[in-house]
Amino acid sequence: AAMKKTPQPKNYHSEGDVLMHSFLALKTLSEEENLEVYWAVFLHDAGKPKTISHDSDRIHFRHHQEVGAKMAKEICKRLKFSRFSTEKIVWLVEKHHVFDQFEKMKISTRLEYFDHPFFPDLMKVHYADALGCVPEHPETREQDLQRLKTIENDFQYACSQKILPSHHKEFLTGEEIMKILKIPAGPKVGEIKEELHELQIEGKIKTKKEAEEWLHSLSS
Predict the structure, then answer these.
(1) pTM of the prediction?
(2) Euclidean distance between CA atoms 39 and 11, whole angstroms
(3) Tens of pLDDT along 106-152?
(4) Beta strand 58-61 with 52-55: parallel, antiparallel or unpaired?
């Protein structure tokens, strides 16, 4: 009922309110689609009624993803969904706008998303979201779909070339880092380990020797 009463910017959503958009997005899904994707698409904008604000003649829904994810978690709990389904639906709702800034992310961050077990379904949610919009200018949706297709191609390439984080065994353990740098256990070790792994994923450090040299450069 709240979604039905919530308007949207007409330049992106000439189809109508949030509920209408959600129904149109659902209709784009295959009948064989998994349950979690159906629920994520239905609830992806559930947070909009609680976050709507007006700035002059513009409508905003700041942080509706996070609010919607909390609502989705409560709904899944009430409907007694399994832990797996709940976790997946909540993650898909929370991340459904991540592609808006995808090109600006570090390569390592993008690859971390590619490596997430729910990423293929996140793509489905994004496609449904885009196809469920009826912008005033058709080229707007075409641009969104083209951006998603580019990301999908990058994902398939990363999988085929085995450059995902899970394909990279870390060169150095936390204990080895502590020994080389002569530092005690603590948050600093984790930060260095994470930065080293990012450099490895991005191809800037390719061997264990290079990793050790990089560590020595930190203390020089």
Answers:
(1) 0.78
(2) 26
(3) 888 999 999 999 999 999 999 999 999 988 888 888 999 999 999 99
(4) antiparallel
